[in-house]
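Title: Comparing notes on inverse folding

I've been comparing how different people in this forum approach sequence design from structure. To keep things fair, I'm posting one structure and asking everyone to reply with a full sequence. Here's the target:
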């Protein structure tokens, strides 16, 4: 209303031109954009897109899983506000909360289950070498990865392996400054069946929200891994 000129430019680009160069499904596009907006700290844009996409392109359970997994990558400090946004959107849509519990681990097996996923995504040799090269006083971070990141979140129902690695790739691309982790999860995407075309499509649809520098950094890593 107050700046129709910018609105027209951005709308034509973000919701028109970029999708001409993406092969992502509607669901994966929505997941990627919502993941990017969490990392970019854009709750108003997140709410607007979620309201439009909910029950049409994405389910409440998928939104919940996206939100849960974001905590491991952007941190609760960044994710916290989006829990409130989701609660308000669900309430407006008449979605009863809490949603069904979709956890598949318990305190006794979360480390084991998380390690199984790490090995499947990145290879046993890589994970073993990572542990062997970690100083003794920092080994607890490897345990956090096993039990918390992969054990508590990746083992849950609601999103499949391809979707989970895709949104992780988007979190890291959108945050910026996470090139080492982005390189690892580019390889992880390849391991679960997300090819180069899919990752380039994901970068394409989030480009309007993260800008050119982070876009080009992500592209450089994808090109290096798939060389």
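Reply #1:
Here's my take.
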């Amino acid at each position: 209303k107050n700046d129709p000129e910018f609105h027209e430019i951005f709308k034509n680009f973000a919701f028109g031109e970029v999708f001409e160069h993406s092969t992502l499904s509607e669901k994966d596009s929505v997941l990627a954009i919502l993941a990017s907006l969490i990392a970019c700290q854009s709750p108003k844009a997140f709410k607007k897109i979620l309201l439009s996409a909910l029950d049409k392109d994405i389910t409440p359970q998928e939104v919940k899983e996206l939100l849960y997994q974001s905590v491991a990558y952007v941190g609760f400090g960044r994710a916290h506000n989006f829990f409130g946004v989701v609660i308000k959107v669900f309430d407006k849509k008449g979605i009863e909360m809490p949603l069904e519990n979709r956890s598949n681990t318990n305190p006794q097996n979360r480390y084991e289950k998380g390690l199984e996923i790490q090995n499947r995504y990145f290879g046993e040799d890589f994970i073993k070498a990572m542990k062997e090269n970690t100083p003794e006083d920092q080994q607890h971070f490897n345990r956090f990865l096993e039990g918390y990141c992969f054990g508590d979140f990746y083992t849950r129902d609601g999103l499949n392996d391809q979707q989970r690695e895709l949104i992780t790739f988007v979190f890291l691309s959108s945050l910026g400054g996470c090139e080492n982790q982005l390189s690892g999860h580019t390889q992880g995407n390849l391991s679960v069946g997300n090819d180069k075309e899919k990752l380039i499509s994901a970068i394409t649809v989030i480009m309007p929200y993260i800008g050119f520098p982070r876009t080009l950094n992500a592209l450089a890593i994808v090109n290096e891994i798939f060389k």
